[in-house]
Design brief:
Layout (H helix, E strand, L loop, with lengths): L26 H21 L6 H11 L3 H15 L3 H22 L2 H12 L8 H16 L6 H31 L2 E3 L10 H13 L5 E3 L16 H12 L6 H17 L5 H6 L7 H32 L11 H13 L3 H4 L5 H17 L1 E5 L11 E7 L2 E11 L9 E6 L10 E8 L12 H18 L15 H11 L6 H7 L11 H10 L4 H19 L13 H15 L29 H18 L5 H10 L9 H9 L6 H6 L4
Parallel strand pairs: 5-7
Antiparallel strand pairs: 1-2, 3-4, 4-5, 6-7
């Protein structure tokens, strides 16, 4: 333990974890030391002979988790998500149930809860300010939702459920990564790749070489719709790729059913009808019935639009003499043709103007400078957790603000999708400045070639950086309520707002430049891109809503209604999926849910029963975009207002109150309906 880097705060700038010094054998000892350290601090709180005060109970509790345990936990789960190996996976499997048990030792501590409850009952007499009140409310809510008010038998059962759920979630997520790697499609004849650009073919050749294969390897994405389906002309290969993509998850079926059953039991232990109600109660939605009603209403209009789009695609197939009905593996391919015919837009023609670094520096960073006065300096002297993880120092009007770590390329050791997380949590109380990470899964180009990215990747860059801004601009007192510590159905809102700048004229003119000549993308091409973006909302809304409705359907089950997997749990899961989507009126054979159950990572982590959050947050997002447009767009004054009233607040005040302070009223849904063509 003497050389364990987690035992003391990092001495690197902004306390960036010392990744160069961290070895796998450091994690478990640091976890044990960290859990023991926090329990000692909690014991000191409950052993105090003093009457409970906000300082000696709530603030002390918040500080109890800021030592060794937090340092190792943040570093480990970042590494295990972004650059895992068998040893790290084994550590995750071992430590996840121990962490759940550790949390329960605190949340189910009767003496500690009694002190919190005393303060809660006397809260109006304590002279608390807004951030203090919020911290007290969050701890009291967390303890109640964590089972502190249960009897001893209930607490014992809840602890067992939590431990098993933690173990199952780890198993589920590790299997997702295994399935992503195993479902890659091997191609030996380059003729089958007709339609792909040279950069895409080169990337496939590099992927095959990395695995010791001849020919080409099409690696998998996290979604049901593989991005190359729109380019591949070979229909047989499209079908093979699509079926490999949606066929993942067989080995996760039994794990999924067990997780659903345990969550249903947990919800009823805590007094809720089902897990969806348990999750909704602590979100801005507040009620699972409201969520179901909203999703149902949006689904009807989305399916209507999708059917119109399908008819357009079938017309193209028929006109070309294709003697087949539109299938799921055809949708993206013929959608691209319709977009080109209607709007003249060819995504491959645009790609040479979308080089990764230029989009990042001259687009994402540029917009942040115009809106908030932020500037970025790459720190090649600072080591990330992987050679591809790059570090930038962020300055706020010239003053040091924090660090941003960007890890953009896919690799076999990285989980799918895109996400943001913190390596250091901002806190005025402690004096910590933020260190945040963005992870993406852009296919790495072959050696010596530029990283030309798709329009979807551009959107993802801006989206994930919206999360990063939420963390970097945090100005909160307490660690627990800073940065992105908001309800799940609010946290996606700031990130979605940041997407508006990707096609903002001033921004796109700055980053969309040819990677060889430096010439700006033609105005006509930009106009075609923006116009074409309005096509396909029926498909996009339907695939998203199908996943959100599926998530709700699983988590609205009572324990006795969860199906038994029997001898073929995958068939049981498939049958449940189809019935749930048919009952909701959103089952379309040509459109798979964005995630099917067996590779739906969101429902194995913090988004279980919360995938609705994206559309819920988009209501706030669309209304906010309207505000920016009404007030002059990308200006420092607008950015300062958004920052002061909302982004800087994190979860330190009620999030909907922060929205009202920003917008001057409650959110309205019309801008969202207009955006998605659902009016």
């Amino acid at each position: 333990m003497t050389d364990n880097p987690f035992l003391s705060p990092s001495e690197l700038p902004y306390q960036l974890p010392p990744f160069a010094d961290i070895r796998n054998e450091h994690y478990l000892p640091a976890y044990e030391a960290g859990m023991a350290e926090q329990l000692e601090k909690v014991a000191a709180i409950t052993a105090s002979a003093e009457e409970p005060t906000f300082a000696n109970t709530i603030v002390a509790l918040d500080l109890s988790g800021q030592g060794i345990l937090k340092r190792v936990n943040i570093a480990f789960f970042n590494k295990n998500s972004s650059d895992t190996d068998d040893e790290l996976n084994a550590i995750e499997s071992e430590i996840s149930p121990k962490l759940a048990a550790h949390a329960d030792k605190i949340l189910l501590n009767a003496d500690l809860f009694a002190r919190i409850e005393t303060l809660w009952q006397d809260r109006e007499k304590l002279g608390l300010d807004e951030q203090d009140e919020r911290l007290l409310e969050r701890y009291r809510t967390e303890f109640v939702r964590g089972g502190a008010a249960l009897d001893d038998a209930g607490k014992e059962r809840l602890a067992a459920v939590n431990a098993e759920l933690a173990e199952l979630a780890s198993k589920f997520n590790q299997q997702i990564l295994t399935d992503i790697n195993d479902a890659a499609v091997h191609v030996t004849d380059v003729a089958e790749l007709d339609g792909l650009g040279d950069d895409q073919i080169g990337a496939a050749a590099s992927a095959a070489k990395d695995r010791g294969l001849d020919g080409y390897l099409i690696t998998q994405s996290n979604f049901s719709r593989h991005p190359l389906l729109e380019d591949l002309k070979d229909r047989a290969l499209r079908e093979r790729l699509y079926k490999a993509t949606i066929g993942r998850g067989k080995d996760n079926a039994a794990t999924l059913l067990r997780m659903i059953a345990l969550r249903a039991e947990k919800a009823q232990l805590l007094g809720f009808e089902h897990f969806a109600a348990y999750i909704a109660a602590d979100g801005t939605a507040g009620n699972a019935g409201i969520i179901a009603e909203r999703l149902s209403g949006l689904a009807e209009a989305s399916v209507r639009n999708a059917r119109r789009e399908a008819a357009d695609l079938q017309e193209v197939i028929d006109a070309e003499g294709g003697d087949f009905p539109l299938a799921a593996w055809d949708w993206s391919f013929y959608s691209k043709q319709v977009r080109q015919a209607r709007y003249g837009f060819d995504a491959e023609e645009f790609k040479p103007y979308l080089e990764l670094d230029r989009v990042l520096v001259d687009g994402v960073f540029y917009a942040a400078e115009k809106e908030f006065g932020l500037t970025f300096e790459e720190r090649k002297d600072l080591v990330g957790y992987h050679p591809e993880a790059r570090v930038w120092e962020v300055f706020d009007s010239g003053k040091p603000l924090g660090l941003f770590v960007g890890d953009f390329f896919t690799r076999d050791s990285k989980k799918g999708g895109a996400w943001m997380n913190a390596l250091v949590v901002q806190s005025d109380l402690i004096g910590d400045k933020p260190v945040v990470v963005n992870n993406l899964n852009i296919v790495k180009p072959s050696e010596g070639q530029p990283a030309l990215i798709s329009v979807d990747n551009v959107t993802t860059l801006f989206h994930e950086f919206g999360h990063a801004l939420h963390g970097l601009l945090s100005a909160c007192r307490y660690p627990k309520t800073s940065m992105t510590s908001t309800p799940r159905d609010f946290v996606e809102y700031p990130s979605q707002v940041n997407e508006m700048w990707e096609d903002w004229p001033e921004v796109v003119a700055n980053y969309a430049r040819h990677h060889v000549t430096g010439e700006a993308a033609p105005a006509e091409l930009i106009a075609q891109w923006k116009a074409a973006g309005k096509f396909g909302e029926g498909f996009a809304s339907t695939e998203y809503l199908a996943a959100a409705i599926l998530d709700q359907a699983w988590h609205r089950l009572s324990p006795e209604d969860v199906p038994d997997g029997g001898d073929d749990p995958y068939a049981v899961v498939e049958a449940f999926e189809r019935k749930a989507l048919e009952d909701a009126g959103i089952y379309l054979p040509e459109i798979a849910p964005r995630y099917r159950s067996g590779y739906f990572a969101h429902i194995s982590i913090g988004y279980a029963a919360g995938y609705y959050s994206y559309i819920w947050s988009e209501i706030l997002d669309a209304d906010t975009v309207e505000w920016f447009k009404e007030n002059g767009g990308l200006t420092r004054a607008n950015g300062d207002h958004f920052r002061e009233t909302l982004l800087s607040k994190g979860g330190s005040i009620d999030p909907m109150e922060s929205f009202r302070r920003f917008r001057g009223r409650d959110a309205e849904i019309d801008p969202l309906l207009e955006r998605r063509g659902l009016k």
